[in-house]
Amino acid sequence: MTIAEFDHLSEQQRREELFKCCGSTHWVEMMLPVFPVEDLVDLLQYADEKWLQCSEQDWLEAFTHHPKIGDKSSLKEKFATTASWASNEQSGVNSASDDVIDALAKGNDDYYKKFGFIFIVCATGKSAEEMLSLLMARLPNDPEKEIRIAAEEQGKITAIRLTKLFA
After folding, report:
1. Domains, the chain, ranges and CATH?
2. Active-site residue, from 8, 26, 65, 66
3. pTM
């Protein structure tokens, strides 16, 4: 879809398309008035600006719209509207060994217990081993530092998804 085509969608359709890119209701509501935009460069700048204006609660809401890294069953069930994007983003997990998948599952559980949200990483272009390494490196973080890192990762994911939406 082009940005011009997006501009001609109903407000509800625009809201749904933006929500696929970032699961924060507040972010979507802040993004709606920025249209029409000149081009993707401007759109990505607005998206980042609006994301930085969001609260921690908005970030946490967005995080709930992601499957755990390597959790193929939740990709199919809960996240049907973004499953193809998430699956492609997490394609590095497809060739991972069972040991790495098991370590990711345990690491995800430990991470959730510590921080109260799933491990968010911009998985595009990363192998399962790289994601596991990042997860293990971030586990010792304090909660304030970690939520900011996760929010930065969400911002990267949103930019990739907006780019895909308007490809």
Report:
1. 3-165 (1.10.3330.10)
2. 66
3. 0.85
